[in-house]
Amino acid sequence: MTQITTHSLGFPRIGAGRELKKAVEAYWAGDIDRAQLQAEGQRLRRAHWELQAAAGLDVIPTGDFAWYDQVLALSATLGNVPVRHRLGYENQGETATDTDHQCTHTGLEETPEAPDGPCTQADLDTLFRMARGRAPSGEATSACEMTKWFDTNYHYLVPEFHPEQHFELSYTQIIDETREAIAQGYRAKPVILGPLSYLWLGKEKAPDFDRLDLLENLLPAYQTLLAQLAEVGAEWVQIDEPILVLDLPQAWRQAFERAYHQLQTPTLKLLLATYFGALEDNLSTAVQLPVAGLHIDAVRAPEQLLSVVDRLPTHKVLSIGLVDGRNIWRNDLRASLEQLGDLPERLGERLWLAPSCSLLHVPVDLEREQKLDAELKSWLAFARQKVTEVVALAQLLTPEPDERAREALEQSDRAQASRQQSERIHNPRVRARLEAVTREDSQRQSPFVERIRRQQSLLQLPLLPTTTIGSFPQTRDIRQTRRAFKLGQISEVEYQNRMRGEIADAIARQEQLGLDVLVHGEAERNDMVEYFGEQLDGYAFTQFGWVQSYGSRCVKPPIIYGDVQRPRAMTVQWARYAQSLSNKPVKGMLTGPITMLFWSFERNDQPMAETARQIALALRDEVKDLEAAGIQIIQVDEPALREGLPLRQSRWQGYLDWAVEAFRLSVSGVNDETQIHTHMCYSEFNDIIGAIAALDADVITIETSRSQGELLQVFEDFDYPNDIGPGVYDIHSPNVPSVEAMVTLLERAAQHLPVERIWVNPDCGLKTRGWPETEAALANMVAAAQQLRQAYGKTAAERAKQRRA
User: Which of 104, 106, 113 has the alpha carbon at shortest distance from 79?
Assistant: First the structure.
């Protein structure tokens, strides 16, 4: 039997104990210097290389480590650094853009503020200015836009493109780290995002130009990068082109051949990596490119395996992703072996095995978990375990598998049998309730135009009502209190008293600021999904199952292992207490069924639509209990709605049908007078605006600040029927926005929407911010709303009065 090569497409960078998060945040706070931060990064990289090599991987990835985001790191590598983020340039406040001043390397006009010279050279602080709008060095300015990485909950920094843009090698992190790995004796495979996917994921920042036109300018920088990777000793480079699983315009499909013919080099072998779906109509393009190998995702798209093998030229490597890189369920090794069939004989040494995608999307090490019960733990695998599964599969394909591989197969068989036979997975009561659901259960009593009239009569809100998205700063005291309660160091009574104190403080601050609709601040919540999952049957939780969401922000997704139901009320006592402290309406705050599904590790043994409907019924009970407790406004957040959209448009409608139905099922049991809000953030919603309208939420709040209001353009062509709150400032940046900046964005919103239907709010929750910046930003937000109430004057107020009459 010939040798099968094993490798990984990428490993989690944050560390099993979130070491990278802690180090980066310490650097931002000034608690450590750059040398200390870099030393911690080097320690983590080496530990991860050693872990993967010890497991038996033949080829170890480099370039998967990033201080904030891998797309951001590539932008810096290619010299695509917006002028406002370059050290030495004076900016014009948080609204400064690249049209304010340009250097000659962009191909645009030079100004005295942008002298000639190699101004695109980047360092660590450059990356942090791009990501956060602020770093320990340089002036504060607006951050780059951030959005979801395909259909995952990971966020990347969106590249910005200008006509005639110049690219040059300006940041050498991946080169340096590859040299470092090779010097330590590893067979290193650098991982970079390919040029077509890089362009696709970015945005034009000037009118009437197509970013695909920049391909010829971009390729020389890629050629230089590849040449330098070859110089430091790389044999293979993994070049990711995940857009090959999307619906691509013909011009983009044709550009692949042109690009990869230019990227050919006799000193390097390119492994073209695709993932998250099937190649389908891009199959011919992918297999014909002049590369040495192709990686496909056989977990998300097992149906494509044989067609790819049949079309792949006989001289090319085929890397097959058989271990799920996006979920935590243990691989069924026997099923994977059956899936491969006779491919080992057909492909010989051209067969490589790997996870389906980068392991960035799963936690680091299951062995750290001490509180999961033995049965459930036996069903799971995190990144470290998934690496060993890849190696075990390769070993099991040899004539004489080693003892470790044989034992892995036996454990896999036992785990699959245990899961299939376990009584904890299926709940007859949940199944019976689902079968009793009717179409009417997903319909509000009256149309929006009637509901909003009754709601405004009850709520008596002013024009441009102000509110926040839900969470307020999670201070050290709050986190320590929650931790002390979990450890049994304080009683439940003491815990609840402290939380009530935090809620009272949040209400008082909001009253002082003059906000119109208040929130309780969510002091008692560790995470918007985990908090609810902990109180629902069918969910399980880890101690250390951290996954990077963006930058230094990590989440600990729950695991949905069985049928979901709500044993008891989850939020009512906190909402009732908060409302008792104010005469203003206080929103009840829930996380919607689609977000509860996609921001968890979902079951893989039943359709996702079925799980979503189970969660919806559990939330429906909570919504009705909140209403019964006197809560007049209930917000059910669905930031993951767009994230769940299938990558191929032909499958969109089927998904949207069940996703919209699940949301409506969760909220439609209330009276007309109860106002339902929802929130969505950091995704492109323009192409599903019809489905968002179909949710029939009375008020929706969205992100518009980082994108400079781009999402508002959809309302030029779509008459959105309900109320909407365009987020007027970026909470993911520590910068405090000015009144003027928020007024400008609201004025832009008023060009697209009737002013009486506009709410004023931040673009997301304020959990990660500190109180001083939060209060300063909200004070400016309230001032902006008050200024515009006066500016729009009697005309808008009269229209609003007529509408609400």
Answer: 106
